[in-house]
Amino acid sequence: MGDKQRSDGLIGSVQRLLDLAEPVLRHPPGRIAELRERLAGPLRVAIAGKVKAGKSTLLNALVGEELAPTDAGECTRIVTWYRDGITYRATLEPHHGEARQVPFSRDGGAIAVDLGGVDADDVRRLVIEWPSSSLRQMTLIDTPGIASLSTDVSARTTAFLTPGEDQVTPADAVLYLMRHLHSSDINFLEAFHDEEFSQATPVNAVAVLSRADEVGVGRIDSMASAQRIAVRYRRDPKVRRLAQTVVPVAGLLAQSGTTLRESEYKALDAIASAPRGEAEALFLSADRFVQAATPIPLTAMERDRLLDRYGLFGVRLAVALIRQGAATTASELATQLARRSGLVELRDVLLSQFAQRRDVLKARSALLALEAVLHEWPVAAGEQLASELERITAAAHEFAEIRLLNALRAGGITARQAALAEMERLLGNEGSALHIRLGLTAEAGTSDLRRALQNAIGRWQRRAESPMSSREVADASRVVIRTCEGLLVSLG
């Protein structure tokens, strides 16, 4: 059966389990309804990282609108959910008391929420509902910076993403932003990671090398330098164990590219149209770009605005693209900047990995949450429900695939490197499209795909049955065989 069919079956099993649990689980009130909503809703992706890592900027880029405030205001101290809605609405949910709608305004593009005198420490979360095709695909959760000077602010994010024993994080997946691979980054990812498959795993965690343009100090080739660093991090055993991949993103460029205005294009075009020497004189430093006298017809205020929106790297890159004729309109420039910022690559990862495993991740989250409720609120039918929950978890091949991927990335299986790489690819680590799993081109026909799958099944059956294979390799081979058999059935 195909991926969709398989995940529909898993979702259906979890829904039936919730049907059984609803009449007997009375506490906490509304929990089953919450689980149903989680199962039916879009994937929940949390964005985490240190203070000033660029979390809100990246969120805005992913949405394609400036919604999240990027300054150090009161609301940046609160876990804030951005989700698709039929209208524009902000809801404040306190730790104690009823949730209520609160007024908001757009301040310089970002949403400014009026907390009505409520202290940020007393707010459990803010929920921003905003009609958006991007948010229809996934709910994005902006979290306060970890390693903040305020331990309370850091604790909010840690408590949200690592809620402790017998608890499950409200996020299905996480983007973790880091400027460099620091010990505190590793420590956080290790806390978020759970070897027993109850919290984060490499399958649902992606590390983002944020503010990547700063790696090259704003040079035009900064992103190439950042790519090389990201590749090195991807190969680091510690990172492989904790995150699926590392993607470099110039967050400011991504946000500005996706929200580029016609007036900004005209200003950038004015710099590109000026004699090269005059433009290059401005690029010597940020201060010079804003304050230096120049015949280019832009005021210091206009240049300051460009610098604030794009950074020196972004302005330099935009000017180069316009000069080369690669961006003759605002729309073309926006497309080029988004691609060169790393945003397109990150979106590809989200759509090819998170979104395509969405139902599996959501089912897993719902089962974990139900398991926590059964543990905390014992009921007479608890054993029957726990037994059914365990049966679903053990029988779902999708979970076996994720457990195997985790083991592979953690270095828990010893085999030749080529065999390990093939296992990861067949399990969809590089993308779930059939030709990608099989290492073929996009032009491969059905007969080519069928032949490659049959060859893979035979190859892994020999490994599973070989007396030279260790037990761990034999067990892993059986998981791969079942995956390939399911893919073969999906071909018809």
Tags for this entry?
two-stranded antiparallel sheet, nine-stranded mixed sheet
What does this structure look like?
The termini are close together. The strands form 2 sheets. This protein has a 9-stranded mixed beta sheet. Among the domains are: 43-250 and 344-356, 3-Layer(aba) Sandwich (Rossmann fold), CATH 3.40.50.300; 260-338, no CATH class. It has helices at residues 3-21, 31-40, 55-63, 133-137, 151-161, 183-192, 222-235, 237-242, 251-258, 262-273, 276-282, 286-291, 300-323, 330-340, 343-354, 358-376, 382-395, 397-409, 417-426, 434-437, 446-465, 471-491; strands at 43-49, 80-83, 89-94, 100-101, 104-107, 110-113, 123-129, 138-142, 173-178, 205-210, 246-249. By secondary structure, the protein is α/β, with parallel strands linked by helices. The chain is built from 22 helices and 11 strands. A hairpin with a 2-residue loop joins strand 5 and strand 6 (110-113).
Short synopsis of the structure:
The protein is of the alpha/beta class and 492 residues long. It has 22 helices and eleven strands.
What is the fold named in CATH at topology level of the domain at 43-250 and 344-356? Rossmann fold
Helix content: 40-55%
- What is the percentage of strand-forming residues? 5-15%
The span between the termini is: 9 Å
CATH superfamily of the domain at 43-250 and 344-356: P-loop containing nucleotide triphosphate hydrolases
Question: What's the alpha carbon Rg, rounded to whole Å?
Answer: 25 Å
Q: Count of helices?
A: 22
CATH C-level label of the domain at 43-250 and 344-356? Alpha Beta
Q: Globular, elongated, flat, extended or rod-shaped: what is the shape?
A: globular
* Second-tier CATH architecture of the domain at 43-250 and 344-356: 3-Layer(aba) Sandwich
In order across it, which strands form the biggest sheet?
4-3-7-2-8-1-9-10-11
Strand count: 11
Q: Which class do the helix and strand fractions yield?
A: alpha/beta
Summarize model confidence as the mean pLDDT. Answer: 84
Q: Largest beta sheet, briefly?
A: 9 strands, mixed
Low-confidence stretches: 1-7, 194-200
